[in-house]
Specification:
Length: 322
């Protein structure tokens, strides 16, 4: 999608600094408020995609973005050979919850939109297509709009989830998978999700709980299932639970233990190969026990005008400890 097309279909782009509308033309993207620094200093365009950051308040700098042509700071190669793809599937079982929940979310979006409207789903941290999302990307009756902090062929713009450059109530659904652990202020990102969603809009979040550090310096936070629910307290719950359970968690722990013992990532990979069967046992575990030791959790919810209270979160607990 080119710039003009992006503006035509999603004319709701706003300045991430002051929320004024932006002017998009071939010379670039500028904020329309003369009081805003981004009216004088246009947002860079990287490989045809606008980079709509408030650089003063982001971990991404304009210098780094321009110098690297928007590349990710973390190497993110896709497995090139069929053997490496098969190895990836063996080590990491499919995301069965996303495979089940994404079609559910799409059905709800279609029901809400009616036959004449195409729902828009915003994917945050969508530089790579996450696991279990095939139905979303294949849906011909849904517009998928994705962004990340780096440029990728599957994103339409580059931005920071702490300041989403889209107008209030401009999308029908938001998907955020394996991202909230990488942002400095998850609550701010969730407030942004709430802001850009139309009333009754849907969110699907899939977030690590007991997982070791990944993406090195870009990994900040973890959530229990209850903490994750409370993070989305301004949303009505449709469903929530474990994505990957205690078996996956144990396989990751063995991997990182061997890395540390032998001072080698390859040693961890070797251990993971030997113990990968643990992750495949997740589906046989008791969900109440497994969620207390889960590797990751999900939340599917609807934007709500009312808030889950601090007392309600105690009654929400889905684990096995009473
Ligand atoms: C572990 S990867 C997950 C990628 C993809 N969603 C998936 O499930 O495979 C985390 C992603 O979050 C992105 N990310 C980190 N900080 C972000 C931010 N502030 N705003 C938007 N995306 C961010 C990273 O660049 C990266 O693409
Ligand atoms: Zn501005």
């Amino acid at each position: 999608m080119g710039l003009a097309e992006l503006k035509k279909h999603h004319g709701d782009l706003i300045c991430p600094r002051c929320s004024s509308s932006v002017q998009v033309d071939e010379s670039g993207v500028r904020c329309t408020s003369t009081a805003c620094p981004y009216s004088k200093e246009p947002f860079p365009i990287i490989a045809g995609a606008p980079a709509l950051f408030d650089f003063e308040h982001s971990i991404v700098s304009v210098e780094q973005l321009v110098a690297t042509s928007g590349s990710s700071q973390i190497p993110r190669e896709q497995p090139s050979s069929r053997f490496r793809r098969r190895l990836g599937t063996f080590l990491h079982p499919p995301n069965y919850q996303a495979e089940r929940n994404i079609p559910r979310m799409l059905d709800l979006l279609r029901q809400d939109a009616g036959p004449s409207t195409r729902p828009v789903v915003l994917v945050i941290g969508g530089g790579a297509v996450g696991k279990g999302l095939d139905d979303l990307y294949a849906a011909e009756d849904v517009d998928t709009l994705a962004f990340d902090i780096y440029w990728s062929p599957v994103t339409q713009f580059i931005a920071d989830g702490h300041r989403i450059p889209l107008a209030d109530e401009s999308v029908d659904g938001v998907l955020i998978q394996a991202v909230l652990e990488h942002v400095l202020e998850p609550q701010v990102v969730v407030e942004q999700i709430h802001r850009v969603l139309r009333p009754d809009g849907l969110v699907y979040a899939d977030t690590p709980f007991l997982q070791q550090v990944h993406d090195g310096p870009y990994d900040f936070t973890r959530f229990t299932d209850s903490g994750h629910r409370y993070l989305f307290r301004d949303f009505e719950r449709i469903d929530s639970g474990t994505v990957a359970g205690a078996g996956t968690q144990l396989a990751w722990s063995i991997d990182y233990f061997f890395r540390a013992l032998f001072r080698s990532q390859m040693a961890g990979l070797g251990a993971r190969l030997v113990f990968s069967w643990l992750a495949h046992l997740d589906r046989y575990l008791d969900p109440r026990y497994s969620i207390d030791g889960a590797s990751s959790v999900y939340f599917l919810g609807r934007k709500s005008p009312s808030r889950l209270s601090p007392q309600d979160i105690i009654g929400y607990y889905q684990g096995a400890q009473r």
